[in-house]
Amino acid sequence: MSHLVTAILALLAMLSTWQWVRAHRRHRQLAEAQAHLERQLQEAQKLAALGRLTGGIAHDFNNLLTVIIGNAELLSEGLERHSPLRQPAELMLHAGERGRELTQRLLGFARRQTLAPERVDVNALLKACRSILTTSLGEAVDLELHLAPSLAQAYVDAAQLESAILNLAVNARDAMPDGGRLQVATSNAAVSEEGLSRAPQLRPGRYVRIVVSDTGQGMSDAVRRQLFEPFFTTKEGDKGTGLGMSMVATFIRQSGGHVAVFSEPREGTRVHLYVPCRAPEAPEPDETVTDVTARDAS
């Protein structure tokens, strides 16, 4: 009889412990959910402030860009085809046009405007913007493109993708003050069901993966966790707005893709962009990704 009572008491103790653990776990989940909602509210407030700011300056900024673009067009048209000044004039024109697009993208970032996705040959896009990338990086940074043959077409907003890659390149340049190497590589990737555990916004299927790697200073885990927050920057003074990486992440996620960042202090940074590929004739993937957050996915 005493054994039965002891067993019952032990069972009751186990049930009590299990209920406590369950209640504690539930409390922790609720606290995490509340913290997540608070972060979302703070981001929404920041975006609202950004929308008011950009809305106020967009008109005046576009007026200035109209003058710059108009004069760059006149200069480019007035130069001989083989003139050594023709390429700088065309780069000036392209930069002015990108500035105009940037104003619209800032508004789109703040107000969540609709993207204009289309079939995009990412390899061709990278080749086309190689000149502006090289100019932006400067002479101290070597640019290398590793483009996969038979790359599938991505379904993405081409202008936004170019802007995202340029943002990543400029950030990489700033992380290499003494010079270094920037690599941009493309590949076909298939994301499996088990690869979505830490990227629930993705769907199983085929993606074009763009990997931007640098040999710069790298970053700590604390910095990496804040990297995509609006207005977060590690740059001094007025050298950074803290919007570049946030714009990249927002665009990629709105496009149905994913961003993963891998970095350690003094070991450089590697950014993986996954953009969707929906073409039925897409080639076989170079790799099936079972974890989009794995460091060794290359």
Polypeptide structure, described:
The chain is α/β, with parallel strands linked by helices. The chain has 2 domains: 1-113, Helix Hairpins, CATH 1.10.287; 119-289, Histidine kinase-like ATPase, C-terminal domain (Heat Shock Protein 90, 2-Layer Sandwich), CATH 3.30.565.10. It is built from 7 helices and 8 strands, in the order H-H-E-H-H-E-E-H-E-E-H-H-E-E-E. The strands form 2 sheets. Strands 2, 4, 5, 6, 7 and 8 form a 6-stranded mixed β-sheet that branches. Strands 1-3 form a two-stranded antiparallel ribbon. Helix 1 (2-78) packs antiparallel against helix 2. The model has no long low-confidence stretch (mean pLDDT 79).
Reconstruct the topology from this structure.
Blueprint: H1 2-78, H2 86-111, E1 118-120, H3 122-128, H4 130-137, E2 141-146, E3 154-156, H5 158-174, E4 180-191, E5 205-214, H6 221-226, H7 244-254, E6 258-263, E7 269-276, E8 287-289
Parallel strand pairs: 2-4, 4-8
Antiparallel strand pairs: 1-3, 4-5, 5-7, 6-7
Helix pairs in contact: 1-2, 4-5, 5-7
Number of domains: 2
Largest sheet: 6 strands, mixed
Strand content range: 15-25%
Helix content: 40-55%
Q: What is the mean predicted local confidence, pLDDT?
A: 79
CATH superfamily of the largest domain: Histidine kinase-like ATPase, C-terminal domain
The CATH architecture designation of the largest domain is: 2-Layer Sandwich
Structural class determined from secondary elements? alpha/beta
